[in-house]
Amino acid sequence: MKQAFKYRIYPNALQREYFAKCFGCVRFFYNKSLQDKINAYEQEKKTINPTPAQYKEQYEFLKEVDSLALANAQLARETAYKNFFAHRSQFPNFKSKKNDQSYTTNNQGDNVKFSDNNRYITIPKCKRIRIKKHRDFIGTIKSVTVSMTCGCKYYISLLVETNDKVQLEPSKDILGIDLGIKSFLVDSNGKTYKNPKYFAKLEKRLSIEQRKLSHMQKGSKNRNKQRIKVANIHAKINNQRNDFLHKLSTKLIRENQVIAVETLDVKNMEQNKLVAKSVVDASFSRFLTYLDYKAKWHGRTIIKVDKYYASSQTCSNCGFKNEKVKNLSVRSWTCPNCGTKHNRDVNAAKNILSEAIKMLKAGAQPDSLLILESIDSLSKKPPLQGVIA
Hints:
Layout: E1 2-10, H1 13-44, H2 53-56, H3 67-85, E2 101-106, E3 113-115, E4 120-123, E5 126-132, E6 140-148, E7 154-161, E8 174-179, E9 183-187, E10 192-194, H4 198-214, H5 221-255, E11 258-262, H6 266-270, H7 276-282, H8 284-298, E12 301-305, E13 332-334, E14 341-343, H9 344-361, H10 369-377
Parallel strand pairs: 8-11, 11-12
Antiparallel strand pairs: 1-5, 1-7, 2-6, 3-4, 4-5, 6-7, 8-9, 9-10, 13-14
């Protein structure tokens, strides 16, 4: 298994200058070769694969940086092309120096190594970079990616081949979760996790700093300082959000053998102007991605219920469908058929769990003894209304 470990680094002035050269050369080669590739197809209807060696005679500054960085840029360009023609992504974009900068090199002959009690790291053509190694790993380093954020902070990401796959103790618990904006997550046991709304909390401060930036003269030193200040606010929001999503997803994976979630059409939700900003702030797609890969790492199961399943409108006790609950302002309702009182989100989570169990029994998911044991264990707990049909 390959796993990435990301650390903060603190390069000195010479190292920052070398990184700037690498970022610029990788960006130049990627954009130049991509343009040549496009021109060759448009003018001669042929496909070419430009290599770094073809440009080094004309552009000698390319010889000053790590050759493997340019080779990896070539691989990234070709991968982007293949993904486009396989309908997995859009056509490759040109790289911009206004975004985060990065380059990737490989570990050959143990030229990536730590020293001085893991306080420094050496990479090709750059020795003794101060690093904050906040966690250890066991495995072989395959490649290294050096990156610089818009806020001028440097990071290094190590791709490690490791067998250190943590298998958690089997759990008998199975959980249904409903994602929302008012409350980030409500589970089928009735537990609610508040939506932290990190962007909303810093939105006023961000708007003030952006307004200052817009009034400054382009190219001035003060404008660059203000640009870094704005970028660091964006980075803080992103870091807070990532921290929350990682901790919550890890907690759910550790406690439950099976987690049932609703398949969300996030792009469609973002088109609604009333909730678009809140949807982006919550970052549901990222949370579901974290759940998915952590489940694979730790031997858990994620069951995805169809997005068209009316989880909020269906009574989890008797199955009656109440069309009036389509209105999002209805947060609680009483079933006209059986008289059961429902909280909208808890009821939805119970229905998602019930639908997931039906899918398991129908064989829609791979057979697993632990999954079946989890379902059977529900009968030993206080009953949840509508869990098993």
